Protein: LacI family transcriptional regulator
Amino acid sequence: MKKQTGAGRAPNIRDVAARAGVSHQTVSRVLNGSDRIRESTRQSVLDAIKATGYRPNSAARALVTRRSGLIGVLSTHQNAHYGPQTMQIAMERTARQAGYQLVLVSTSGERGAVDSAIERLLALDVEALIVLAPRTEVYRALAGVEARVPVLALDSSRREGASNVAVDQFLGSRLATRHLIDLGHKEIVHVGGPQDWIEAEERMQGYLFELGEAELEVTPPILGELSADFGYLAGRDLLRGRRFTGIVAINDQVAIGLLHAFREAGADVPARISVVGFDDIPEAAHIPPGLTTVRQDFVAVGERVVEAALAEIVSGAPSGAILLEPTLEVRGSTAPPTDAGWWASRPLS
Amino acid sequence: MKKQTGAGRAPNIRDVAARAGVSHQTVSRVLNGSDRIRESTRQSVLDAIKATGYRPNSAARALVTRRSGLIGVLSTHQNAHYGPQTMQIAMERTARQAGYQLVLVSTSGERGAVDSAIERLLALDVEALIVLAPRTEVYRALAGVEARVPVLALDSSRREGASNVAVDQFLGSRLATRHLIDLGHKEIVHVGGPQDWIEAEERMQGYLFELGEAELEVTPPILGELSADFGYLAGRDLLRGRRFTGIVAINDQVAIGLLHAFREAGADVPARISVVGFDDIPEAAHIPPGLTTVRQDFVAVGERVVEAALAEIVSGAPSGAILLEPTLEVRGSTAPPTDAGWWASRPLS
DNA sequence: ATCACCGATGAGAACGGTCACATCTCATCC
DNA sequence: GGATGAGATGTGACCGTTCTCATCGGTGAT
Structure:
C-alpha cells in the first residue's frame, strides 16, 4: 500500500543492525544513548542508520515503554483568543524541550462531546491531560473518568485529583474594580462572560467582593460572549437603560466593543465613562483612548502547567495549585468620574 | 510504577475476551465493527468491555496497522494571531470528525529547529503533515526530507510534492490596493510583513502589481513584524518623512498600530489618510473609524486543508492546489483623498 | 447421505521496539 | 596462570493489537 522508493517497507531496527553487523539490541542502545557502547561501534551504527534512512517507530516504542511522549490538551472551539493561544504556544515550547509533544483536542461544551474528547485523548495514551477549557461541563465529565494520568487545569478552582495553574482571576477582577472605586466611581457595572466558564465566574466574584467592601450598590451584570460584537451590543443596551460611570469588562475584546458603542453614542471615555478590560491583549494600548486592563502572564502560565505536568508524570503525586498574580495596567480608558455620568447629557427616556 | 486501582496493569483485549468467553480476535472484531458477529456475542463482548474498563491501546493498534491517526501541524512561535488560530480550530474539528487527531509542533524560524520539528512529527508516524508556517526556511527544510507522507502547505506557493490550500493573498492585496486607487489615491505606501514569510511577499506583490497597472509611483515599503506595536512605530516613521494619502497594511494588527500613530499626530483617518488592513479580525469593525480590510475565510481554509490531507492519505496522490478568494470589507478607514494629504496641515520639516 | 459452501469464530504469527538476562572478551589480581 | 569482574554485546520474550488462515457447525444442492 504505502508508496515508497526502494524497499517495500520502512527500515527497522534489525535492518540497521544487519547493515552495521551488530545485534538489534546494540542499535537500540545507540538510539537511547547508552554509554556502554564502544565508540567505533556507535559510529558504524550511526552510519547504518543514515544509510538506511531509518527512523524509529514511536508506536512500537510507546507499546513497550508505555510512555507515549504525548501530553493531551483539552480545549474549546471558542478559543480564538489571545490568552489561550499564547498559553498553548508556551506549553508547546516547554513540552518540546522536555521531549514531549502536544496533542490537541477541542470540544464544544456539549455533554457527549466533552466525554468523547477526553476518551480520545486517553485512548492515545497521553501521559498527562491539561484542561485549557475551564468550563463546568468539562469538570463534570472529568469527574466521571477514572484517569490513570495526571490532570491539570488552567484555572484556580481546586478540584479533587486535579492540579491547578492559573492567574488569580478573583484578584485580577478585584484590582480592576478597586481601581475604579479608588478613582471615585460609585456606579460600576460588570459585563461578564458565559456562565459555564469558570474564570468568568471568578472574575464576577472579584467584582462583587470589592463592591461589597466599598459598600456600593450592585446592579445586575450583563452576561454574554467574549467578543467585541457582544461588547458592542451590551454597550448599547447599557446606555439605553442604566446609570453608571464605570464598567468592569470580562475581557479586552468586550471592552473594545463597549468603547465602540459609547463612542457612537457620544458618551466620551474616560470623561463620562471609565472602562477596564482584562487580559492586556497586544492591541490594548493602541485602541483609543488606550485600554486600562488587567495583565496576565499567559506565557508563565503555559510554562508552569507543563512543568507541573512533567513533574507529576515523574513523581505520580499531584503538584497542588500554583496561582500567579495579575497586575493592573492603567491607560487612558479610566479616569475619575464626572459629577454626573454620561446620562446627564442625554437623560434616560 | 503506574498507580491504579485494582490490577497491576490496564486490561487488554485478551482480558476482555476471557471475561466474555470468546477469543481475543472476536473482541477485536467487535471493536472494529465487523458485521460478521452474532448479535448476542457482540453484546456479551460489549458488556465485558464495560465491566473491565477496557480501553484500546492506540500504540499497539498503530504498530500493526501502520496508521497513527495523527495529522502533524507545523506551526511557528509567532502565531498568536487570529488567522492561524482560527484555522487550527477548524482543522482540529474537521480532523476529529474523520477520526484523526492533530499533533502540534511549533518552531522558531531557525535552521536546525525546523529540521528537528519535522523530524519529530515524522517520528510520530503522522499520516499527513500540514504546514501552518509558510516561511521560506520551512520549505528549505521540507525539501531535504524524504517524506513518506502527504505534505500540505497553507499558502499559495506551489511547491514540488506539496499540495496547497490558501486564500489568494496576491488577489487580496490587489483588492485592497485597487480600492484605494479607485478612491482616487495616488500616493500609497505598503507596510509589509517579515521578509521570510511567504504570504507577506505575496501581499507585497499584489500591491506592486496594482500600482503598476495604475502607473503610480512606488515608494519603498516598510517591512517589519505583524504586531500593533510595530504598526505604531511604522506609523510614526511614515509621518516623519513620507508623502502619502493611503496605506496598505500587512494585517489588521499593524493597521491598528498605524491608526494609533496617526490619531496621536492629529492626522485624521480617513479624512487625510486612508488605511486598509488584512484578515478582518473580529475587532476590526469596532475600532474607530472602522477598519476597511480584506476578509479571509480562515475556517474554510482549515476545513479544506484537512479534507485534502485525508483525501491524499487515502489516494496517495497529491490533491493539487486550492485557492480561495478573499473579499474586501469596506468600513470607515478609507475615503477619497483630500486635495492635499495629511502633510498639508503639518508640512515636512 | 454426501459435499460444497457460508457465516461465525478461533489460533497463531506478525508489527518494531525495549527489557531482562545470558554470554563473551579481556585486563587485573593474587 | 586461573579466578574474578566489568565492560561490551547478543538472545529471546514481551507489549497489545490486527492480519491471515484454519476450523467448526449448519444448510441447501446433488
Observations:
- Residues 298-315 of chain B form the longest helix (18 residues).
- The CA atoms of residues 165 and 245 of chain B lie 34 Å apart.
